[in-house]
Amino acid sequence: MAATIRDVARASGVHVSTVSRTFSAPHLVNSETRNRVLAVAEDLGYRPNRAARALTTGRTHNIGLIVADISNPFFPPLIKAAQAHARARDYHVFVADTDEDPLVEEELIHTLAKQVDGVLLCSPRLSNRVIERLHADVPFVVVNRRVKGMPTILMDIGQGARLAIEHLAGLGHRRIALLSGPTGSWTSGEMCAAAAAAEGVEVVIMGPNAPTERGGLAAAAEVIGSGVTGVLAYNDLVAIGLIEGLYERGVRVPGEISVVGVDDIVSGRLNRPKLTTVAMPTAAAGRMAVDLLLHSFGDGATPTLATLETSLVVRESTGEAQK
Amino acid sequence: MAATIRDVARASGVHVSTVSRTFSAPHLVNSETRNRVLAVAEDLGYRPNRAARALTTGRTHNIGLIVADISNPFFPPLIKAAQAHARARDYHVFVADTDEDPLVEEELIHTLAKQVDGVLLCSPRLSNRVIERLHADVPFVVVNRRVKGMPTILMDIGQGARLAIEHLAGLGHRRIALLSGPTGSWTSGEMCAAAAAAEGVEVVIMGPNAPTERGGLAAAAEVIGSGVTGVLAYNDLVAIGLIEGLYERGVRVPGEISVVGVDDIVSGRLNRPKLTTVAMPTAAAGRMAVDLLLHSFGDGATPTLATLETSLVVRESTGEAQK
DNA sequence: TCAGGAACTGCAACCGGTTGCATGAAACAT
DNA sequence: ATGTTTCATGCAACCGGTTGCAGTTCCTGA
After folding, report:
1. For residues A160 and A164, what is the distance between their CA atoms, to the nearest angstrom?
2. B285 contacts: CB under 8 Å, gap ≥ 6
3. Ramachandran assignment for A41, one of left (phi > 0), alpha (psi -120 to 50 degrees), beta (any other)
4. What pLDDT digit, counting tens, does each position of A79-128 carry?
5. Most exposed among A142, A204, A300, B7, judged by the fewest C-beta atoms under 10 Å?
């Protein structure tokens, strides 16, 4: 049906190897011949078969992108950026969702390993031990998790958490809560570390919480009971859920309790009150992760670490602490 | 490096074809032999190479999923469901984003065509003519667009729009606005058709609007100027943006103007006022689209049309019309 | 004038599976 | 005992490219 390299060879009177080189090593073929071959190929609508190419070269020109939950609004901008960036470099992206389940994540890596040249692991829930073991099968770039000797993109959430805590402290809050995220989340760990190191404020850690608005909703009662006046939530969804839960119980934000989220998702910007939040450079992280992965194919694996800055976006969900 | 079919054959003392059949046609091989081969394969960590298999069978076991904008919260639940459903059937999914650009969409289909067994086209911006032409290259299932002779999943937005309009009419609104979506959007066309057919209410159509909250924000002035008391927006993002724009101009929702969205995205549920909206069965659509596509591989292309019902979710952004 | 390259191109093996056909052995019918 | 199936497996060509090697032609410089 579709034209193959042999059809093109026949129609342009050269050997298949010449056609092959026309596409994969143009400088090795005479420009006159090359143009003729290209014209014929164009005419026949020939496109190289990537599966066949993959077979001999061992390079599929595909990459895998594994996230915990596509529906979590934190990920789509990252996926979108990574996918566009990869495509511009002639790579296609398999996107897979683990449903926050480490076992699914591991199985996914296995089945994907043979089909891709490398995998972008975003906010993995797997332990470092397992990740290191799987690394033998396929190159990784890890996003939002520190794994020894592996190319890594980090969004500096520790710094973001410090910014958020200082912001609250500056508004006079003396006792604040940290709503931590899922066990196994590096992000959550970093936030807890930042909280523990905070000076001049008492930070009580609550959790783990599901990284969804339900998780935030469910935490409302405990937050009220704890007597804090400020909250740093694991992410914006949790923050929004929490605000909802507080409203239901008649507690006003930011009047009585101030809330800071993390991620700067669209919903937060549209929420009322508009969410004060730690903005994460997700699109940049997606692009950089692709770059790092493709780069790691080239030379002999230079593990690199890139840390991207986060920033605090002050909107309406935080205010002066109540006397 | 990785074990191949020949390694397994050698180690288990049979010919490669027997190993091949063990995996792709188990009933053709003696159960004793089969078990031995399976044991050896397990031992060597053998996994069939899909690229090689694709080369001979012509089936890649991959499908493409093309959406206009991954960041649009309407799509992630669909992507998530489709991806999970496909994986359970041993298919992997390439996700690609066209940035709402028909040209990118066309190019994407071309480059993907050779790499996948079929493509899920979600809310395409391409004209039917072009889609029909491209259909020669690769099987499609089209979601949210009616294309003659092609397997199609429709979410009945016409019915949803009628429900929304009746809801507004029931609340006493006599003059309402329809904020239409991008040119080329089938959904938008259906909504306009439903609006034109509405009885007992006057519907003025405004647009096209960008399918984002910016689009809604930008439409606020015109909505106020038009003297309508109710609005049906192209989607929830537009609705939320519009509400924001109305607030900025001192117009209250639902006090002075009622607003209905479409999609039932999370942000709408979390918005204040909570959005009244037409809920779309996105996850079901994703699963069904995968089923239809895989089914179409089997027999001789039975174009099927599935229409999924939509429903109106009444929340807080709609109320009695002002006298 | 001739050795030594450089520039092109053809040849053929190979990547890792699949599959139609042939072979041989065992099971069955007559 | 002989002919016919059925079952299990081996053989080898093939899918559509890539690539090391070798051969040819032509150019260069001594």
Report:
1. 6
2. B78, B81, B143, B144, B153, B155, B308
3. alpha
4. 999 999 999 999 999 999 998 899 999 999 988 888 899 999 999 989 99
5. A300
Residue ranges of chain B whose pLDDT lies below 70? 1, 299-302, 323
Asked if the C-beta of A77 comes within 8 angstroms of chain B's C-beta atoms, the answer is: yes
In this structure, what are the phi and psi dihedrals at residue B16, rounded to the nearest 5 degrees? -55, -35
Of all nucleotides, the one whose C1′ comes closest to residue A48's CA is: D17
Output the six-digit token pair for A20. Answer: 């092959």
Q: Which residues contact A58 (CB under 8 A, 6 or more apart)?
A: none
Expressed in angstroms, the distance from the first to the final Cα of chain A is 78
| Dist CA B205 CA B223 (whole Å) | 10
Locus of tokens 């290259």: B137
Q: How far is Cα A106 from Cα A175, in angstroms, rounded to an integer?
A: 40
Residue nearest to nucleotide C14 (CA to C1'): A56
Annotate B191-250 with DSSP letters as a single string: HHHHHHH-SSSEEEEE----SSHHHHHHHHHHHHHHT-SEEEESSHHHHHHHHHHHHHTT
**Residue B33 CB lies within 7 Å of the nucleic strand D:** yes
A44 touches chain B (CB under 8 A): no
Tokens of A106: 């591991």
Q: Following DSSP, what letter does each residue of A259-272 receive, concatenated?
A: EEEEE--HHHHHSS
Alpha helices in chain B (DSSP H): 5-12, 16-24, 31-44, 50-57, 75-88, 102-113, 128-134, 157-170, 186-197, 213-226, 236-248, 266-270, 282-298
Measured at the CA of B171, the angle between CA B167 and CA B173, to 5 degrees, comes to 95
A133 touches B: beta carbon within 8 Å: no
Q: How buried is B62 (Cβ within 10 angstroms: 0-12 exposed, 13-18 middle, 19+ buried)?
A: buried
What is the predicted pLDDT for the residue at B293? 93
- Residues B213 and A270: their CA atoms lie apart, in Å, by 9
Give percent helix, percent strand, percent coil of chain A, each to the nearest 5.
45, 15, 35
Beta bridge partners of A146: none
Q: Residues with Cβ < 8 Å from A195, sequence gap 6 or more?
A: A161, A165, A178, A203, A205, A232
Q: Which token pair is B129?
A: 């003519």
